[in-house]
Amino acid sequence: MKIETIFDLSADEKKWWGVTIKQKRNELVRTPEFYAEYAYEALRLSTEQVKQTPSDVIESLRETAWHRHLEDECVFHKEIITFLVENRDIPRDILAKLYKANIANKYTNLTKEELFKKMTLLVGEYAGRIMPYLYALSLSTTNSRRSRAGKTFERVIEKILTILDYPFANQARLGNKFYSENGIGKIVDAVIPSADGYASNRAKCALLTMKTTLRERWQEVVEELQRTNLPHIFLLTVDGAITQNVAATLKSYNITIVVYDEVKKKKFASFDNVKGYEKFFAKELPHYISYWQD
């Protein structure tokens, strides 16, 4: 009995699989807003906790949200592979033949351990024979995780701003008109206090950009400031691998980095353009907000 192996997907099959993955993920994996709100409710955080230990709060919110996301992602992966086997002839036929050749009516006298070993071999061989489907799914999941991690981080920061009753406008509130009229790219994730405030006196507004990891992406922020002549921007991150050289470079472009308090203490104690989250929420932002309250 010949068992087929899939070495590549046709253009039409790649398109179908890509669309199917996206549809199923949207059905089964919730939005970053959901996960951020779920984490807040699950942790039962008080306003006082947010004020006193924002670094710990951000870390806990992100970790709780991520674990909940992974639970949904696990269900998604189960459902998408099941859907593939049920709806595509070749993957279904491969599994049926492998089962018939290795399991069905062959090993009724096997111990549980022996049967488990046979099942393990079947799963491994099946994965190898449909690898192009799994590879495309893996790439899609990796890209989705990056995007969702970043958006969830943004929602976590927005949640803290809301708890602290700080006025702000995120990208959704600012709208495309704000970006086009001001020639600003979407590198700006939030404006404090508002779009109207920016139009009135942008020098008195706090502009926030949020990136979970920097690597070379900090250059995007530099390019945006140079292109638009923005006066200053806060770069919020949870990346503890930032180097002192990068911090020094960003200082020359009037970019303030905001990091976990522990990172600030250990690596950037002498850097005035690197702030910990505690000082950022307790002093930096209130300084800007006070101008609009007078």
3D architecture notes:
The protein is of the alpha/beta class. The chain has helices at residues 11-28, 32-43, 47-52, 54-87, 89-102, 112-129, 131-163, 171-182, 195-201, 218-228, 244-252, 261-267, 277-293; strands spanning 169-170, 190-192, 206-211, 233-237, 255-259, 274-276. It has a six-stranded mixed beta sheet with strand order 1-2-3-4-5-6, sandwiched between helices. Strand 5 (255-259), helix 12 (261-267) and strand 6 form a beta-alpha-beta unit. Helix 1 (11-28) packs across helix 4. The longest helix is centred in the first third of the chain and has 34 residues, at 54-87. The termini are far apart.
What's this model, at a glance?
With 294 residues, the chain is an alpha/beta fold. It has helices spanning 11-28, 32-43, 47-52, 54-87, 89-102, 112-129, 131-163, 171-182, 195-201, 218-228, 244-252, 261-267, 277-293; strands at residues 169-170, 190-192, 206-211, 233-237, 255-259, 274-276.
Summarize the topology.
Elements: H1 11-28, H2 32-43, H3 47-52, H4 54-87, H5 89-102, H6 112-129, H7 131-163, E1 169-170, H8 171-182, E2 190-192, H9 195-201, E3 206-211, H10 218-228, E4 233-237, H11 244-252, E5 255-259, H12 261-267, E6 274-276, H13 277-293
Parallel strand pairs: 3-4, 4-5, 5-6
Antiparallel strand pairs: 1-2, 2-3
Keywords:
294 residues, alpha/beta, 6-stranded mixed sheet, elongated
